[in-house]
Design goal:
It contains twelve helices and eight strands. By secondary structure, it is of the alpha/beta class.
Amino acid sequence: MRVLAVSSGKGGVGKTNFVANLALALEKKGQHTLIFDADLGLANVDVLLGLAPKRDIRHVLSGECTLKDIVIRTKYGFEVIPASSGVLELTRLAPSEKLSLKEQFDEVSQGVDFFIFDLGAGISDNVLFFNLVAQERIVITTPEPTAMADAYALIKLLFVRHQVKRIYLLVNLIRDEQEGKTVYRQIAQVAERFLGPVGLTYLGAIRNDPSVPRAVRQQEPFLHLFPDSPASRDLLQICEKLLRLKPKIEGGLEALWSQRSQALL
């Protein structure tokens, strides 16, 4: 199983939409995928997919049920662990709550090929914690200078404070492929100059495509509604590249928590 964290320095860059469509692309490739909506206080994976969960992460942390009880299998094949929106207390998990989740992750991940954390924007404790738990990380930006600056700030924090080196950069809402590569080069050059060997990898870019907001309004993945659209073609290329990347995996979720998460407990 590969454990992947998807985050961004700035909100509004299309992170959750990317996660949902990547999960569908992975399912099409025979890779069973589980999304954990880890934007715990402002969750929206369920809204994006038109889901109506009766229970969510609040009920797990309160002891009313387990993670396994709230997993939703979507009609696309992949599964979702829903979080909650508008609950301030969830934006900063207590150590005991992190440990409670730790004890249940292995059980819900049985039979899963990709476990994806859909994180909130910024550099909160929750964002850093789930990035440390993951084996691989995708940071999403757009060509906007503010989004690029915030993406670099997140990469810098992960590298300097926690020695995280396996980071993929994805550029969303581009005009063309050249713009995506330019954004990557700019961030990579700054990182190399001021941070050193971060190991930033260009995962790809997704074009600014009118089919994407149309799919959002219909609460369906754009890959499902518009499989031949420019954004869908870009997404499938990114999925294929991700599958070609085969990092060294050391242990399962239990090992990852043991090795890294203690820093933020």
